[in-house]
Amino acid sequence: MSRVREAAALCVPDADSAEYVPQVHLPAHARRAVMRSRSARQRAAAEQARSQDVTAEAVRFLREDMGMSTRDVAEVLGLSHQRVSQLERTSG
Known about the structure:
Number of domains: 1
Number of strands: 0
Strand content: under 5%
């Protein structure tokens, strides 16, 4: 975009304050690849959120119901003790 502004500045006096709306035209196979990528990232983000909720539930159960220490919970879940503490604080 900086190059577009530089080029426009040669022809248009107020090019620095103009609003540019880029329009990218991709071939169909490239558009499909972009859409698959976006969809996969959305699914991954949703799964990450679900994973965090399930892990926080496991932390809560192991700490409260099982009486395990933070370090033992971390070992069982394959997390750092700092992450276990963080999940305890955020899961309320």
